[in-house]
Specification:
Neuraminidase; about 15% helix; 2 domains; 4-stranded antiparallel sheet
């Protein structure tokens, strides 16, 4: 076996072991605060927005790591902020605003928040890759953009007036949603300067929205079918409905490198939203983990998943009180790490 084949075999074994731990583990649930959690990176740093009430709601972007929640503040003169995405270097993107001016996109790194796109109004930063390329939407008539080192490129639409980018992978492929006509929106993929219409689930006449893409190019999102949203996976030019038996609505919000997908579904009895994990065609209800931290009977949704399998999202009660949550995969036991190490060593010896 050549060295490259040996290393790829070892890498596959280790990744497969990590994936097995992630999907087979009993998650440890945590409430992070009053608000929503939108994303988590491989260092288990969580981002989102917390809120307080002081004659009205005030939203603040936050990061959470190692049990410490940090309020990221706002741009000068603003009152509200939110964090949408974080990369594995810890760079955060989102928005900052106040009641008297338009929303601006922000980048937060090293304790410093700065405006992107030259502080252009009506700018929402939604995603960032590990090299720091930012995507989102901008303009009073919004269009999707890519910001690469301060150089802003707008991506156009599918023929209608609007587009918005939601995520970008480390190959530079962007996904989002764009108008085909003023009355029909479709998910899109943008690569090599070309925006591709992904169509609708079951019919080109069904609206669709792409929310995330992993480094293998697999896209997730939802499509409106007979008035209900249906979570989908898009792979190899085929859009497939994720299994959601006996439910009304479902959404797919994020996907990790192992292909694990998180989102939510609406159960009919009792009628409420459940945070969900899809492993292939297996749907796993995450709501029982939230029962353990005092959120029994609350609506919930999962918004982000990292490559370790840690999941974040939010839950809310009938009064729309929100709680950000983290479902953490327990660290592998010393015995499991020993087994993995021995297996890797054994494979290396056999390859000699």
């Amino acid at each position: 076996m050549k060295a490259s084949h040996l290393l790829s075999g070892i890498a596959f074994f280790v990744l497969a072991t990590i994936r097995a731990v992630a999907i087979g583990a009993t998650y440890t649930p945590y409430v992070l605060g009053t608000g929503t959690a939108n994303d988590i990176n491989s260092s288990r740093t969580v981002i989102g927005q917390i809120y307080t009430t002081n004659g009205g709601y005030v939203f603040s972007a936050f990061s959470y790591s190692g049990g410490v929640l940090v309020n990221l503040g706002t741009l000068a003169g603003d009152t509200d902020s939110g964090a949408s995405a974080i990369n594995d270097s810890g760079v955060i993107v989102g928005t900052s605003s106040n009641p008297n001016t338009a929303v601006r996109g922000i980048r937060y790194s090293g304790g410093v928040m700065s405006a992107i796109n030259g502080g252009a109004p009506y700018t929402y930063a939604s995603g960032i890759d590990d090299s720091g390329v930012i995507v989102g939407e901008t303009g009073a008539a919004p269009v999707a953009f890519v910001n690469n080192g301060g150089v802003v490129t707008t991506l156009g639409t599918l023929g209608g007036p609007y587009s918005g980018a939601a995520a970008i992978n480390n190959s530079g492929t962007v996904v989002g949603r764009a108008d085909v006509t003023p009355s029909l929106t479709h998910a899109f993929r943008y690569a090599g300067g070309v925006m591709t219409d992904l169509g609708g689930l079951f019919s080109a006449g069904n609206p669709s929205y792409a929310w995330d893409i992993n480094d293998a190019g697999i896209i997730v999102g939802d499509s409106i079918v007979n008035g209900y949203s249906r979570a989908f996976r898009y792979n190899a030019s085929v859009m497939t409905a994720l299994p959601t038996p006996n439910v009304f609505h479902s959404t797919a919000e994020a996907i990790n490198s192992a292909g694990l997908i998180v989102g939510s579904y609406t159960a009919p009895s009792p009628f409420r939203d459940h945070a969900a994990l899809w492993d292939g065609d297996t749907l796993i209800d995450l709501a029982p983990y939230l029962d353990q931290i005092g959120l029994t009977g609350w609506n919930s949704r999962a918004m982000g998943i990292n490559d370790n399998g840690d999941i974040v999202g939010d839950a809310w009660d009938v009064h729309y009180n929100h709680r950000a949550f983290l479902l953490a995969v327990p660290e592998p036991s010393p015995m499991l790490l020993l087994i993995v190490g021995l297996a890797v060593l054994g494979q290396a010896v056999r390859a000699r």
